[in-house]
Amino acid sequence: MSTVHAEHSSASTLRRMARDPRCVAGVLGCIVIVALALIGPAVAPFDPAAFVGPAFSPPSGGVPLGTDHLGRDVLTVTLNGGTAFLAQGIGGAALALAAGLIFGIAAAISARPVRGALAFAMDSMVIVPQILLSLVVIAAFGASPTTLVIAVGLGQTMPTARVIRAAALRVAHEDYYLAALAIGENPVQRVFREILPGIAPTVLVELGVRLTASFVAIASLSFLGFGGGSIEWGRMIHDNQGGLAIQPWATIVPVVLIAVFLLSVHLVRDGAARALAEAMRR
Amino acid sequence: MTPPTPTTTNPAAATSAGERVAHVAGLSIEVARSGAVILDGIDLDIARGEIVGIAGETGSGKSTLALALAGYHSPALNVSGGAVEVAGHDMLNSDEKQLRSLRGDRVAYVPQDPASALSPALRLRDAFGTVQRAHGMREPAQRAERMSQALGEVNLPCDAPFAARYPHELSGGQIQRIAIAIAFGFNPDVVVLDEPTTGLDVATKHVVVSLAQRLSAAHNSGVAFVSHDLALLLTFTHRIVVLHDGKLVEDLPTGRFLTDATHPYTRELIAAARLEPADPAALGSGPADGELAVIGLDAAYGGHQVTHGIDLQVRAGECLALVGESGSGKTTVARAIAGLHPEYQGQIRLGGEVLPASVRRRDRAMLRHIQYVFQNPYSALAPRRAVGRSIALAARGLRGCSRAEADAIAAQVLERVGLRPDHGRALPHALSGGQRQRAALARALAGGPSILICDEVTSSLDATVQRGIVALLADLRRETGLTMVFITHDLSLARAISDTVVVLKDGRVVESGPTAQVFTDPQNPYTQLLVDSATPLS
Amino acid sequence: MGARFGQAALWCARRLAIMVGMLLVVATIVFLITQALPGDLPRQILGQAATDAQIARLSEQMGLDRPLIVQYFEWLGGMLRGDLGVSLASGTPVATLMGPRIAATAFMVTVAAAITLPAAFALGIAAARRPGGALDHAISGTVFVIMSMPEFVIAIALVAILATNVFHVLPATAALDPRIPIWDQANLIVLPLIAMVITALPHLTESVKATVREELSSEHVRWARLSGIPERTVLTRYALANVVPPSLQICVQTVGYLIGGTIAIETVFSFPGIGSGLANSVMTRDITSIQSIAVLIAAVLIALYAVADAVGLVFTPRARRPVGGNR
Fold this sequence. Notes:
The complex is a heterotrimer. By secondary structure, chain A is mostly helical.
């Protein structure tokens, strides 16, 4: 008889991801954009509020990407606009996942009437388009960076909760969960010892889904002008879209940055989900 | 059912007497990506009118061989050598068009799971019709006539309302008979039946077997009958081949199989199928008072009643076998006893004390007394926790002891069930099915229970592994005087381990009594049927 | 026949009750978010400079001085009578304000859905038939890129390529003239329609592809192939019949995406529809309009889901009898 060895599945997942060229490309894309957002404010040539020339003037020596609708340097504004975008996107995803975990697990293992009511509420609320729900929140609280995060987080809570609930229900129907009942584990022990480890892969995949969706939602809502006053890529597109024909850089640069970043996040998420599925299958 | 007289006494005679309809020579199949060998140089001939049983356990390659006879292999597999011929046609090198005309016509296939084999969206007549049209039957009248003929052959009605039914309006046995009717409908040279009896109840199993016999004779077709159930194959085939790890290790006429089989693996299979009755002297005889009593149990699923007035008495140290087929309510009874199925009326008493229905309301002492071992070892252990830790958690939860004490108990019970300390450090997926079931058993023992409920604990394991688990359970009883409720669909297993037997059918007790008595003198016709089907090797 | 009709009636009644329940949940949650959560809505709307009297007047006008439960039932009652309320921003009824916008968006969503749904099925089935083929890869790649993008990025890319900088073949805005029927201004709506279709296609295509692929590897398809049934029959009679019911739900989801997507797309093109109307209402904090429109959209989608369920039932013989035959 050979000795049994337990391979660390997280290590093998990472190794699989490192061998996947699409995933590696995604990681590189993410690193570039995040680095740009983080060190951008330090290396920007001008003050982000400074007026450097007439509005929508084309690129020239001093202003390599031209000026925006207020006559600010597009390069400077771009370099300053990433931090808020990234922070808000991560905040929205974290909020959605936290709320989704609480609702989802409650809807899977609480007493029958509560369980049924929560499931029905989730099934009803996912029908409302997420952006619509976010708009309701923004209208109620007023546009500000914080509201934006709450709006995006709440907009995605129900779909997250549904996914978590389905995964938690699967665990609750496994024999090992019944065995936990039979050895007298209390509800808190069952959540932390059985449910959470059991749904961990789902939560990881869902985190990826929520990050992408949250960045998309943040970009869309700030494009619509609901990001509050901050300097931010989505907002830049909103403000400069009118000058697309005369000074395209002011719109195209943030559009490309957002597109590259979202594509990269999606590539990483997809690669991670694939690697995780393969690691689980073994 | 009467066993047929084998037409031939040795394989060489079979090929010369009957015309050879299927010929497999040196067939090797491997996994395309990894090169792992699935079939390794298989030689097999099937003669016209001959029924060849293909026996083997999970992973032996028997299904791959069955599909290869129809010229099919999963896209993930690769034929690395050999030949397959059916009625003189090369099944491995024909193009799709040739294969299509051969399949269903010269070689027909009956799949394992009847419920998923027919498209849920097709009426019975359309399932027939699509196959008929594929083989050139253009006239609706001709199709209808042939269909009713084929349905008649398998004793099904052939009226229009029946033909208009969807699969969900038919029973599993009916669907399996329809698949057989379609298979024999074109007078094929070879019919491949891939585990056609798995999941069917005993009565239906017999119907399928006798249909295969009758139609094979009527249409003069060769039959490859794949099954993991050696005992069943022994009752009706002409010849049995045994597959083990992709190799054909035995090929003998059925009449000489038990006596002449020489390969060690075959001997092991035969031994596993022939479980000896329990030795009554070895069994503990506890006090006569009911240790565990089930009184008037009416259990329900979502308001739909599944058991009706079940009464059980289990004395301390006794092993009670609860026997029944799927849907008989035996698992529901077991779970109700363990508090895992609280939706019931009636009482469950432990030493005279009525237990709360739900496990959540039972106190630690009650939980300690009764532990449950699940059918499926693959889902019984938390997948992301070392099995030793699962066992230690159970010890802590049930005994309320310190972590160090729990670890010591875990090590002790692991050893008791025949596992090593490094098994305890492994995650469940690193263990084999049998090892997982031992680990699950160890967890159940960690609290030091007085009553162990074993729910079909061997049914998802191969016969040879089963035997080890059954021996372990018998040892445990002898040493610790453990009371046991043993749930099974397999009467010969019940005979091997239990003192008393209770037979359930459709949620009711149809027979109960001491094991020996139920076996030698069954009172109920249903028990008689079960007993008959359980004793082919004696 | 009578029994079957009775069953159908029972099913409809049950489904209707579920629909009403779902709508109540949505309405309640939307109401709670907009009315109960914020502290001092009138002050937020009027700004810090407003006098107490102004604020009191607005509170009264909004009905905020009455108990929450009364407000809730008045609003709900109005919604049930088809009264969408009065816009806080302009004082005109929401129905008057939003009516033409609702019609314009409904037209666009219908046309886009009529293009998207068949296209997604065609592409998904074609890709599923040859897994790993060129078409499969092309579709997965495109779908992947589009799925990563917000709607407005696609819309702006279309404007940049087709309406301004690269080619100038189509108008960059779709500011419809309300006096002329929408189909007489077809050149204006081409670009928004393309944007809608492109953004809605991927999800349904992927899901159709996955469902067809799963069906094609199912037991009964293998049995059909092993019975010599030609591949075309396998696809049409064995696989597709089982693909339709689960896909119907995704079709409605796609309509939901189309409606949600209009908010950004209509803003990019200045299209006078419900989406840009909603964006404007949020700007002006016009809570009544937003509430009513949100519930209206939810009602439409809930009704569509019910229709999808009913159609799915026709395609799923098994589901027609909940307690299966003589099993």
